[in-house]
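Minutes, structural biology subgroup

Action item carried over from last meeting: produce the structure token record for Peptidase M23 (Desulfitobacterium hafniense). EB confirmed the sequence was re-checked against the source entry. Recorded below for completeness.
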Amino acid sequence: MGLMVVLGGGLYYSQTTTAAALMLNGQEIGYVASPDEGKQLVDSILVSQGDSSGLVAKTHDQIEFQDTRIRKGTLQENSVTEAKLNNLISTYFEGVQFSIEDAPIAILPSEDDFQKVLQAYQEIYAKPSENNTITSVEFKELISSQPVEVQQAEFSSPEMVLETLRKGHEARTEYVVQPNDSWWLIARKNDMLTKEVLAGNPGMDEDKTLQVGEKINLVKVTPYLTVVSKGIYTGTETIPFDVESKTDYSLPSGSSVVRQEGSDGSKKVTYSYVQENGKNIEKEVLEEKIIQQPVTQVIAKGPTYASANVALSRGSGKVSGLGWPLRGGLNSYYGYRWGSFHTGLDIGGDTGQPFVAAAGGTVSSVGWSGGYGNMILIDHGNGVATRYAHASKVSVSNGQQISKGESIGLVGSTGRSTGPHLHFEVIINGDTVNPLNYLP
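Output recorded by EB:
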């Protein structure tokens, strides 16, 4: 009897093997050779799911191993393979949700990636250099990050998120053309520039006639984030030369001769600033040092006779309180430039951008005027007048009283012009003078 037990026990052990039952959320799904092998199998699945991104998946599933002894054939028939377990296990990834003003923007793999995106975006607009000392950088909006559990497809790479921030938020609406509408009028109605309206309608240009009832796209782009930077900048700036005009009655009317060539000077300027996304919103000059004095250009001009149909006031010519009619870069200064005399300033702008009166006064002349294109001439009294040329649209009429800062027209490229800008003149007792001497 004892021999039979021994023989029977030996036969059992020869036909069976140790194993571990894999329990998934309390349910047996098969066997693995050992708990260690089962754990390696689970780890392999979690690693492989995040393999392309370098992340490792995690699971909330309850996975347990129960030691047992089963027939060898049963282990082979009911073994848990990686493919089988991969189809049954539920996985997730830990990520970081990036929000601006509590609005989710993207999900990043880690907090480090979140910080890298913010740093890279700041560096677009706040770049320290030898001439630019940045004292502080912060975001205007409320920014937050919080841990989330997501699937791999929900992740955005840091590069993708940075590009999204660079492009800004795009809001698209449909506009139905109304009677008398034009591209510039539609832009003005919607607080946009003409070029911005055209950009939302590929294939369109300003020459395209709009039909009443036609539908066009209005695409407005606003930044997700505003970088507020403060600092101190030191650099060299040009001092445009002044132009001194003298009437020479020996010269024919309308002619001029340069008696002394002018040349620009330069100065070293240090100023503090506050910028939003790289644009100055506050600027204070701390120090100026002249490096080279400009040389005044002296011009002898033949006598000017007032036009019969435009009578301007005469007086002391004292000018005070003129304001810039348009904020933009200066494309061309007053004086002899490139072989010809330029009677004003060319201020860069976009077609359809409003410009304003530099001072209060009365409109003396408005309408088409040869090379000036659409032109406005305002008499401010005391012998002072200002001219605004190349407008795409004028919004004043002859004899109208105008206040300083009042919108009087829209930037254009009418008349003799190579591109959209505002030609601005200051005229004293019939002669043009350098506007920079009278502007703040």
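Discussion: Residues 35-49 form the longest helix (15 residues).
Next step: EB to file the record with the rest of the batch.
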